[in-house]
Amino acid sequence: MAVAPVAQDVHLYIDNVVIAHEYIDPMAQGTMDMPGMTSPTQGTTITTETVQFEWTPGSGVSEYWLRVGTNPGAVDIYYQSTQRNTTSTVTGIPLKGQPVYVRLWYKVNGEWLFKNYMY
User: Fold this and answer.
1) If 0-12 CB within 10 Å is exposed, 13-18 middle and 19+ buried, where does residue 104 land?
2) Running DSSP on this structure, what letter comes out for residue 27?
3) Is 104 in contact with 117 (CB distance < 8 Å)?
4) How many C-alpha atoms does 14 have within 13 Å on its Cβ side?
5) Bond preceding residue 40 cis, omega within 30 of 0
6) Over the stretch 32-83, which tens digit does the pLDDT of each residue have?
C-alpha cells in the first residue's frame, strides 16, 4: 500500500526563537501517476487457467513484480519480475471458485510500492 506524503509546517529555532518558517507541501511538486491494473477488471471472476494481466505503466517506474496466489500474500501461483513490461501471462490458476489475490509491486526512486487486487 502506498502512503501519500504529508504536508509539513517546518520551523527552525535558535534559543526558542523562530528564525525560519517554511510550509512544505509535497503534493505541490506534482502527483505521482501510479500504475494500475486494467485487465482483468478488479472484482471479476477468473474463468480460465491462463490469464494475461495488464496494467498502466505509471510514471517513474523502473521495475515491476507480479505476485498471484490463492490467499492474501500467497505466491503459490506466480511471483516474478516483469522488468519494465506492463503485461504478464500467468498460467496454472485454479478454477475452484476461490478468490485469486494479485499484488502488483512497482519500484519508484528506489522504493518498492504495491497495489492489491482480488478476482
Assistant:
1) buried
2) G
3) yes
4) 2
5) yes
6) 689 999 999 999 999 999 999 999 999 999 999 999 999 998 999 999 999 9
The residue type of 17 is V
Q: What is the Cα–Cα distance from 96 to 89, expressed in whole angstroms? A: 20
Q: Where are the alpha helices (DSSP H) in the chain?
A: none
Q: What Å distances lie between residue 100 and 49, 89, 115, 118, CA to CA?
A: 11, 15, 14, 6
In 3-state terms, what secondary structure has residue 17? Answer: strand
Nearest-angstrom CA–CA distance, 32 and 52: 26
Place of cell 519508484: 108
Contact 34, 115 (CB under 8 A): yes
Domains and CATH numbers, the chain: 33-118 (2.60.40.10)
Sign of the alpha-carbon torsion through 61, 67, 71, 73: negative
The three cell numbers of residue 42 are 478488479
pLDDT, one tens digit per residue, over 41-55 is 999 999 999 999 999
